[in-house]
Write a structure and sequence with these properties.
By secondary structure, the chain is an alpha+beta fold. The chain contains nine helices and eleven strands. The strands form two sheets. Strands 1, 2, 3, 4, 5, 6 and 7 form a seven-stranded mixed beta sheet that branches. Strands 9-10-8-11 form a four-stranded antiparallel beta sheet. Bound molecules: (R)-mevalonate.
Length: 313
């Protein structure tokens, strides 16, 4: 019997999270060090789902899989196939609730696996629309940046309702991602910012705009070998995110430690209130040293990684 596979990497928000929900730009980068692989196989009967925490019919999947369940149903509808005779196995190395786009990666890999199984052609737009069904369920009002970055090979410049742009780096940039250990709830964090915006529209709007400006400067820094400027922008964005109430003690502790160990900048990444930080290292050796120090300092997981620049420039 045939098996089809759909894979997806994860994503990081470099700068602009939360503000992007309210129309500001954000920069996100594909993060290939963790990802999801979904396989689809024939099995007679109803659609079965197999994950690390649930094995059973799609129709009785737990709350946490409802977004994916809807996404599967809509994808089958889209390709005119009945919801039967399939087992869908989802294997993920992305820790959930850590700002790494786990839910969006699962959705993208599931949709890809179904299209592959039925040997059906699809556009990027089909893929994003179907995956966003699951994201809307998981996040309430997602900006769409997660699913988009997960289907991209290059850093993404993203503004809601604008054409997407990709950023060309002038140089290599070395980062460390470190997990604070606490699970964050993106939906709640996004709602809390919306709540603040209602209570103090002027003040919060200014903060979101400021994040937008910092994001513009960060783009220039990426394009013009400006790693010190980029670091400064990350630090400034973190101040605004703290003022928006989406950072927490565990994140702040790792961020301050990373800076004290020579990081050029550090901030939370993704929804916040738990999850991961991203720190800009001085160079490759420093990124490995910093990762090791963060791990000893108590980070639950660390990933040093490089964003490769276009060497011809
Ligand atoms: C989550 O990775 C990024 C947020 O800005 C939410 C979103 O854009 O949908 C917090």
């Amino acid at each position: 019997e045939k098996t089809a596979i759909g894979i997806a990497h994860s994503k990081l928000i470099l700068i602009g999270e939360h503000a992007v929900v309210h129309g500001q730009p954000a920069i996100a980068i594909p993060f290939p060090l963790v990802g999801v692989e979904t396989s689809v196989e024939y099995i007679p009967g109803s659609v079965m789902i197999d994950t690390t925490f649930y094995h059973g019919p799609l129709s009785t999947a737990p709350e946490s899989l409802q977004g994916i369940a809807q996404c599967i149903q809509e994808t089958l509808k889209h390709i005119n196939m009945p919801a039967e005779d399939l087992v869908i196995r989802i294997k993920s190395s992305i820790p959930p609730g850590k700002g790494l786009g786990s839910s969006a990666s699962v959705a993208i890999s599931v949709v890809r696996s179904l299209f592959a199984y039925f040997e059906e052609d699809y556009t990027d737009e089909d893929l994003l629309t179907l995956a966003n069904i699951s994201e809307t369920f998981a996040h309430g009002a997602p900006s769409g940046i997660d699913t988009l970055t997960i289907t991209s090979q290059s850093p993404v410049w993203y503004e809601k309702e604008h054409p997407i742009d990709f950023i060309e780096l002038s140089d290599d940039f070395h980062f460390v991602v470190a997990d604070s250990g606490r699970i964050g709830d993106t939906r709640m964090a996004v709602e809390s910012v919306a709540q603040l915006l209602k209570m103090a529209p002027k003040r919060i709007h200014r903060k979101l705009e400021r994040i937008g400006q910092l994001t513009h400067h960060a783009k220039q820094a990426l394009e013009k070998k400006g790693k010190h400027i980029l670091g400064h922008m990350l630090n400034e964005a973190q101040k605004e995110l703290e003022a928006l109430g989406v950072s927490d003690a565990g994140l702040n502790r790792l961020i301050h430690f990373a800076r004290s160990e020579g990081a050029l900048g550090a901030k939370l990444t993704g929804g916040g209130n738990g999850g991961c930080i991203i720190a800009l290292a001085q160079n490759e050796v420093h990124s490995r040293q910093l990762a090791e120090k963060l791990r000893k300092f108590g980070a639950h997981a660390v990933w040093p990684f490089v964003l490769k620049g276009n060497q011809e420039k």
